[in-house]
Write a structure and sequence with these properties.
Chain A: This is U6 snRNA-associated Sm-like protein LSm1. Chain A: InterPro entries: Lsm1, LSM_dom_sf, PTHR15588, Sm, Sm_dom_euk/arc. The complex is a heterodimer of chains A (159) and B (106). Chain A is α+β, with helices and mostly antiparallel strands. Chain A has two domains: 29 residues; 88 residues, SH3 type barrels (Roll). Chain A is 40% helix and 30% strand. Chain A has four helices and six strands; from the N terminus they run H-H-H-E-E-E-E-E-E-H. The termini of chain A are far apart. In chain B, a hairpin with a 4-residue loop joins strand 1 and strand 2. The longest helix of chain B is centred in the C-terminal third of the chain and has 13 residues. Chain B contains two helices and five strands, in the order αβββββα. Chain B has a single domain, classed as SH3 type barrels (Roll). Strand 5 of chain A pairs antiparallel with strand 4 of chain B.
């Protein structure tokens, strides 16, 4: 390669231009197909443009946000700068997680986030991780209480 | 393979995809692949009052704005329970024929 470029220096402008033209051809026609090796699923996913902010909904209901760096035909995905968005009522919190590799079987859906519209509505307030943990616990306790109340009522009905 | 080609003919039509977690998403079918993974455009969550499910609060601001911040999404085929089709999207006779052909192995 070095000797090749050295040769180029001795050549006139036309062949330099030709070299640039050929390298441009190479990058346009040989590099892009590399992105399509993964098969059909990745063809669908690849129409989500690459450096893009995504929302990944997992089977356990968790919501991960991050920048898509890679994926394959099983919808395995690599998220850079991932964070988990915890929503409790009108409170929300983004807990930073870092680089995440998600196994495809856990994915429910992958949504493109509109960067202009990503901001949350006015009535949602951002709170700290500790506060959201507290709110989550309160909500869980409330549903537990409801469950036990219902159980007692059923018992009364049976009587 | 029959349903793959069947869904390919529905591209561009509006469908409702009901997921195994009771979330129902309506949108225009953009593409489908061999696993019946689905890509929808102009999505919105339907029936969020009927299904006050956890996931529906993912888009709580939908009440004020008819649009979500997620406009296009990829749905993994394995989590789909039903796909509700437009009434004019099915030609029953052709589907019958194709199903019989498939059953004969032809």
């Amino acid at each position: 390669m070095v000797s090749f470029t050295c040769c180029l220096e001795t050549l006139d402008c036309i062949s330099v231009a030709l070299f640039h033209f050929l390298s441009a051809l190479f990058f346009f026609f040989f590099v892009p197909p590399l992105f399509f090796i993964g098969g059909c699923a990745s063809f669908i996913l690849s129409s989500l443009y690459f450096p893009e902010k995504l929302l990944v909904l997992l089977r356990d209901g968790r919501k991960l946000l991050g920048i898509l760096r890679s994926f394959d035909q099983f919808a395995n995905a690599v998220l850079e700068g991932a964070c988990e968005r915890v929503i409790v009522g009108d409170l929300y919190c983004d807990i930073p997680l870092g680089l995440y590799v998600i196994r495809g079987e856990n994915v429910v859906l992958i949504g493109e986030l509109d960067l202009e519209r990503e901001e949350l509505p006015a009535h949602m307030t951002r709170v700290s991780a500790a506060d959201i943990k507290k709110a989550q616990k309160a909500e869980r306790d409330a549903t537990d209480l409801k469950g036990t109340m219902r159980k007692r009522m059923e018992f009364l009905d049976l009587e | 393979m029959l349903f793959f080609s069947y869904f390919k003919e529905l591209v561009g039509k509006e469908v409702t995809v009901e997921l195994k977690n009771d979330l129902a998403i309506r949108g225009i079918l953009h593409s489908v692949d061999q696993y019946l993974n689905i890509k929808l455009e102009n999505t919105r969550v339907v029936d969020q009052d009927k299904y006050p499910h956890m996931e529906i609060r993912l888009f709580p601001w939908k009440v004020q704005k008819p649009e979500l911040s997620v406009r296009n999404c990829f749905i993994r085929g394995s989590v789909v329970r039903y796909v509700q089709l437009p009434p004019d999207g099915v030609d029953i006779d052709i589907l019958h024929d194709a199903t019989r052909r498939e059953a004969r192995g032809g």
